[in-house]
Amino acid sequence: MERILALAFVEDGPLPRGAMEALQGAVDLSRSIEGSTLSVGLIGQRVEPAAGSLAGCGAARFLGVEGPEVARPRYASDVAAAEALARRSEATLVMIPNSSRAARIAGGLAQRLGGRVDTHVVGLRVRDGEPRIDRWYYRQRMLATLSRTTRPWVLLLEGGVFEPWRGESGTADVEAVAVAWPSFVTRNLGEEAAGTKAQTIRPDADLLFVAGAGWTKKQADGQSHIAEAEERILGFLEASGASLGSSKSLVDLSSEGQDILAFMTHLNQVGQTGSSPRHPKGLATCCHGEEPHVVGWRFIKERRAVNLDPNCGWARGKADVLYVADAFEVMAKVNDLLS
Ligand SMILES: Cc1cc2nc3c(=O)[nH]c(=O)nc-3n(C[C@H](O)[C@H](O)[C@H](O)COP(=O)(O)OP(=O)(O)OC[C@H]3O[C@@H](n4cnc5c(N)ncnc54)[C@H](O)[C@@H]3O)c2cc1C
């Protein structure tokens, strides 16, 4: 038997997709383990509207920590609020959707509760009445299934593991949980949005747009066209809301002293030694589609590529559609159509 607490932070607007996915995971788990109970714990300036949106999820209790102290992310207040909710619900399992705000407190929360934490959880199942989690090791080369006897067990769930919970909204009776706030040394003075040029990685985007080293190579006229490449790529990201990925060759250029795309960093790198993002669709441009790169596309189901070379890696069964064309021309036309 488990007492499950689905924990989420409420910021401006409705609960994010990750929170709905984690809630679906918690609902499934509570149904699969006999005698389990499900509580929802919400933290934010005002939690009632969010609780109402989850009213039909079958939770026995809705608990909330509200107020200006937790309106914005801050370790000291977030972890104190999460601890108060976990203690009030007497949770044995605390399930939290991964975000920078949640990741910051997960370890501290487990420590305060005398429990254990596992992060980057990518699967959840029940065997012999016990919950088991899946987690990758060694850059996604080994998938391990783990169980633990220690409780409480704090789980930080990755996005894309569960379908988002969808159900009836209504009125939820939220039990307000009081917190003895510590004295804070950190204050939130405001937020500054990152410019479009910096904000190129968008995990929730429907499309991954990969730029390869070809964007910086000499073209038919014998010249490279970095400024045009930047304009085409940023124009497309802005118009489409896509997330920007890169090949290793392109992000390595800066360390080799070559002309580079100013907004591209190693964080954009997709592949064996980069990331494996979870967008439903991908479009690769000026990227050869070699195996160490394409292995990072393992979660991307619909794949298209634009390359001058009809024998590139994408042509060898790695993309659904390959456009044998000049990506500079294709993306200029696409941007025209989008605008
Ligand atoms: C151990 C190891 C780990 C690695 N890990 C990774 C990794 O994590 N991620 C990764 O990406 N790579 C990784 N690599 C490197 C990988 O093998 C390739 O070298 C790299 O992906 C190539 O990058 P690219 O396709 O952008 O560049 P290139 O191979 O230089 O390809 C450029 C492509 O652009 C095309 N092109 C040029 N101009 C145009 C145009 N105008 N229109 C359309 N197409 C054009 C060319 O036809 C060419 O196909 C790894 C390699 C090793 C050995």
Please provide a written account of the structure:
- It is elongated, with a radius of gyration of 23 Å.
- Helix 5 (226-240) runs parallel beside helix 8 (327-338).
- The protein is built from 8 helices and 14 strands.
- A 9-stranded mixed β-sheet has the order 7-6-5-8-4-1-2-3-9, with helices on both faces.
- It has 2 domains: 3-176, Rossmann fold (3-Layer(aba) Sandwich); 207-338, 3-Layer(aba) Sandwich (Rossmann fold), CATH 3.40.50.
- The model has no long low-confidence stretch (mean pLDDT 94).
- A hairpin with a 2-residue loop joins strand 5 (116-127) and strand 6.
- The chain is an alpha/beta fold.
- The longest helix is centred in the N-terminal third of the chain and has 16 residues, at 17-32.
- The structure holds flavin-adenine dinucleotide (FAD).
- Residues 212-214, 217, 219, 247-250, 269-274, 286-288, 290, 292-293, 296, 306-309, 312, 326-328 line the site of flavin-adenine dinucleotide.
- Flavin-adenine dinucleotide binds next to helix 6, helix 7, strand 13 and helix 8.
